[in-house]
Structures are given as C-alpha cells and as structure tokens.
Amino acid sequence: MGEEQKRSEDLSLEIRMMKPEDAPGVVELYKSVYGDEYPVKAVYDAKDIIRQQENGDVIRIICRSSEGRVIGHVATFRSCLSNPALYEEGQGIVLPQFRNQGIIRRCMIYLNMEIYPQMMEQLWGEAVCNHVFVQKAEAQLGWYDTGLEVDLMPAASYIKEQSSEGRVSALLMFKSFKIRAQTVYLPEIYEDSLRYLYSVYDFGHTFLPARASLPNTPTSGLSQIFQGAGVARFTITELGSDFEKYFLQQEREALDKDTCILQVYLNLASPANAAAIEILRRHQYYLGGILPRWFDTDGLLMQKTINPPGFAHIKLHSEGAVRIQAIIEADYKSVIEGEAK
Fold first, then answer.
1. pLDDT tens column, 247-271
2. How much is the pTM?
3. Neighbour count for residue 282 (Cβ, 10 Å)
4. CATH number of the domain bearing residue 235
5. What pLDDT sits at residue 160?
6. How many domains would you assign to the chain?
7. What is the pLDDT of residues 270-294, one digit of tens each?
8. Same domain? 32 vs 170
9. What are phi and psi of 215, to 5 degrees?
10. Which of 25, 100, 149, 334 could be bridged to 70 by S-S, CB 3.0 to 4.6 A?
11. What secondary structure letter does DSSP report for 213?
C-alpha cells in the first residue's frame, strides 16, 4: 500500500453517492477550483445538479470531510449523442488543501467497484493532460488509452490555479464491462495506427479494409457547439455522397461561433469511412483515436485545431499514451505539410 493511500485512509472521510442536500456543496467545490470559468455552466446550479442525478443523466460520487463539507468528487454522465448508454467519467475535483491524499482515487474505486458493474457496459473518459493524476488512477483501475483530444479544454478554466500554460489536451480512456465483438472497417491510411490502438484490449473484433465509396444517399448527423469552451463536435450518423458539403456547412456555422477545436466522429462499422477520412484530411483534420461503442459500434475521432496545437505542454503517464501522442502528432504534421504542397 502506497503512502498516498495510507494518508487518505487515515482521514475521517466519507465516500458515497451524492444526496440532494450535498448539491450546494458540489457547486461550491466547482467555484473553489474553477471560479466561474468551468465551461459547463449547469454545475453552478444546485437544482440542476439534483435533477440530473434523479434523471440518471449524471451520477456524482462525493467525498465529505468529518465536518460535512464536500471536499472532492467524481462524476459519471451521459455525453455521447449517438449512444446514450455510453457514460463518461470525469470532473474529478478536490479542494487544493485536501490534495495528494488519494481522494480522487477513492472516489473512482467506489464508482468502479460499487456502481459501474451494476449499471454499465462501457465507459469513457477524458483525462486532462496538465497533470497525470487522473490518468494514473484510471490506468490502475483497468482503463485503457485509445486516443488524444488535442487542446480540448480552454485555458480560462485553469487560470484560478495557474495549472496550465494554455489550452489543455485530454487523453481518451475507456473501460469495458461487457464486450461487443463487431466488424471494424479499417481505413488504409490509419491501419497500422488503429491496429496498435486496438492491441491494448481483446475486443474479439473482425477487421476488414474500408474500401467502399460514399453511398448515394444524404449525409446525416448531430452537432454540438460548446461556445464557452470553443469546441464543436459533429457526429456523423449516416455517410452519404454529399458528405463534404454537409460537414463544411457544419464547420462554417461552428467557426462563426468562435470555436477553435473541431471534432468529427465517424462510424468504423461503415466500409465508406476511408472516403470520408480522405475528405477530412484535405481540410486539415487529423487522427484523434478510436472510440469503443461510440455508436454502439466503434467510432473514430478526427480533429482540427484552428491554432497551432500545444503538443509540447502535454503530460502523459504511460508509455502507450506517449506513443499515441507520437502517432497523432505525426499525422497532424502530415496533414499540414500536405496542405502546404
């Protein structure tokens, strides 16, 4: 048992699911760490926090001090438009004076041991890369790395603590409780990279080449714009022959709202995904990673950073994550150099 775990177990702390009376303390937790700059503004509304938990949209595990103060917490929430059953784990927060005592780890253990096995088949998370604490804790609990969202979080969220030199990237991490074997169509340009990403876990998948043309049907999708964070997400539910026209229209609308991070989610169950990737790369989109069960079938993230990405500031815990950054950084350079020719 490490010293960090010993210290945390010596404290008179209570780890449990949030109750309605804890909601004001959760709001104060966000304010104490982020000020008013957390990009999801619903976390500042105690009534909304209670409603989300009652609806099953957000599950919050809190840590309370012996005086009854909420001093830390981890949330699990629905965030995937294409698969409501896929929950995201995140928002691990601890008050500064209570850090380095294993609180986030204990909250995660509670979720992974007491909540997830009863409720979840697949989970995902975005482990911030201005430190490695969350990455390390999730790796110890059996999560695996699948990609990197470059410059995802706005720098303003980290001003209060001065813990970042700019926007903060996030490591994509997943955990499986129930395997769903499927056929995955690999685009030739990313075949080696994707086979490496899939090698960390035995999914039982069948891999085939993605060689189909875009079908002669309309493209459809779902768009999310997080204006405060400067992030736009485009989930492509059906690929069609008008894909380029469709996504460029979505991109224009997002850029008009001052977004600087653009993400496109493609379905790897579609044998036409390579044709869409070729179009995206022509418009400076580069690889982000794989997304197990994103559509219930697996997804692929392509991303575009309007400003030069801050690869140099990314902090990673595992050798696998370092290799993932190298893959993504190389693809970014390939896309940019290709555009310059």
1. 999 999 999 999 999 999 999 999 9
2. 0.86
3. 12
4. 3.40.630
5. 58
6. 2
7. 999 999 999 999 999 999 999 999 9
8. yes
9. -70, 155
10. 25
11. P
Both tokens of residue 162?
Answer: 């001065």
Burial class (CB in 10 A: 0-12, 13-18, 19+), 185: buried
What is the per-residue pLDDT across 201-241, written as a single tens digit (0 to 9) for each? 889 999 999 999 999 999 999 999 998 889 999 999 999 99
- The CATH number linked to 126 is 3.40.630.30
In a shared domain, residues 309 and 192: yes
Q: Which amino acid is at 152?
A: L
pLDDT at 6: 43
Q: What percent of the chain has pLDDT over 70?
A: 94
Cβ 201 vs Cβ 178: under 8 Å: no
At 8 the pLDDT is: 42
Single out the residue of 260, 285, 262 nearest to residue 187, CA to CA: 285
Asked if 208 and 327 sit in the same domain, the reply is yes
Which amino acid is present at 331?
D
13 shares its domain with 155: yes
Regarding beta strands 231-238 and 261-267, do their DSSP bridges make them parallel or antiparallel, or are they unpaired? Answer: parallel
Q: DSSP E strands: which ranges in 183-268? A: 183-186, 206-209, 220-226, 231-238, 261-267
CB count within 10 Å of CB 18 equals: 21
Give the span between the Cα atoms of 291 and 297, in whole angstroms.
Answer: 9
3-state secondary structure of 3: helix
The chain-wide mean pLDDT, for the chain, equals 91
